Please model this.
Amino acid sequence: MLRRPVPVPAVPENPSATQWARGAVVGAAVTVGAASLSFGLSSAAAAYFARQVVVPPKYRSEDLQILEVTRSGEDGDPSAAMLVRLPATVDTTVAGTYSLRFDAGRGHARIGAIRAYSPQEGTVTRVVEEVYTGDLFRATRGFWSGSVYPDPGAAGLPFEEVEIPIEVGPAPCWVVPAEGGPTPEGERPRVLPGPWAIMVHGRGANRMETVRAVPVARALGLTSLLISYRNDREAPPTHDFRYGLGFTEWKDVQTAISYAKSRGATQIVLFGWSMGGAISLQTADLSFYRDDIAALVLTGPVVDWFELIAHHSRTRRIPSGIGRLATNLISHPAGRMLTGLAAPVDLKALDWLSRSEHLRTPTLVLHSVDDEFVPAASSRRLAELNRLVEFVPFARARHTKEWNVDPQRWEDAVRRWLPGRLAQDARTFRVGSAGRR
Model:
């Protein structure tokens, strides 16, 4: 039998319960939206951070004020020393020889001894040893650099300009012959068969950074090849205008080795600074000339990009998760759209702390314990993990200024360590390499 539905009395609405239900729905939506927004912001921050790592800097900020430029003697006395007064900073108050760049990098002055230091005023006065380019008297701002000499000639060295054909085009280089007889004026310096040093500069620098290492290499009988490489503003850029952090640039060093061998190089020593250290390590690992590489001499090298990016995350107070996401963007194919890289960079292949047993080339590491940009702890750890690595600590040099702070100590370390590796490798090369060629 059919029954008529019994009407159900309307239940009075509970305002508090309804508001809670509506609030729960809105709260859930806000939580999801906030999570999406947070992820989006994190991704954007990580992408920005990753680009800071792989995009070559277009210019360097002139963050150092030039307070005054004077002469120490009477007006008109050409022999009077030129002096520059600067703000006292952790860089400008350290003894040694440096350069002061100004006028958007077009001006270049070599700066020497400290003449006066006033902690009360917060200023330091130093000798201007030479002005290579520009008018320092008119300059008001500049930046401090360890790249002392604009070219080998400024350091009193004979040299020639050459180009080597890297994958993206001709790369300008300097060749400085080993010590020998004088080179007649106007003639190409004479290069005799023997060991060659290939000098590999760091990130954001160029080949002038490496000139300071040439005198000791030359004295040890090495001809030096000071190279440029892709995306360093001297050699041609790649299509993506991005650094490979050593993962791609090593191929340019391999081409440099080929050039050196064509001119009589019997052994190769790679000198690398900062990212140039990472490039040199990759070359020694991957190049088909690796048996010709007798030794590595690395100053302030990057031996682990994971730890370096984590370090910069900490110093910039960036959440560690964003730093990890940045490394993922750099090393994963899906990150190319955000980083602009044509291909991902295998950061694991550049992690020499995890791959320490794969380093088979004798390596000298010179690294300042107060390096603010590439901490020395990773270099010290590499030496602990691999007996072929010798670690020489410096102090107060900060990043890649070990030679500037104490050139005698830097050169003595190279002079003591390198000859034995060359002699040992020469015996190995003659006996062990013949059957592989």
